[in-house]
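Quick start: what a row looks like.
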Amino acid sequence: MGNVIELGTVTAAVIPPEKILQAALKAALTEVVVVGQRPDGTVYFAMSTAEAPGVNWMLDCAKRLLMDGIMEDESHA
């Protein structure tokens, strides 16, 4: 089994949304963007600011962390 390739990705079990939201409440955040999926498959989206460029920037930062396989704070896992 010498042909094993290690992937630089984060894998974890499914974490209940409530646990993620509780961790966010303790993180002293100044702005938030919440994206989720409802049981019927529709997307939930909410933001604490009306500054669309700032929200877009936060989403881009989150995408970069996701693509790099990095979790900002793994203490909630």
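That is the whole record. The longest strand covers residues 33-37. Helices lie at 17-25, 52-67.
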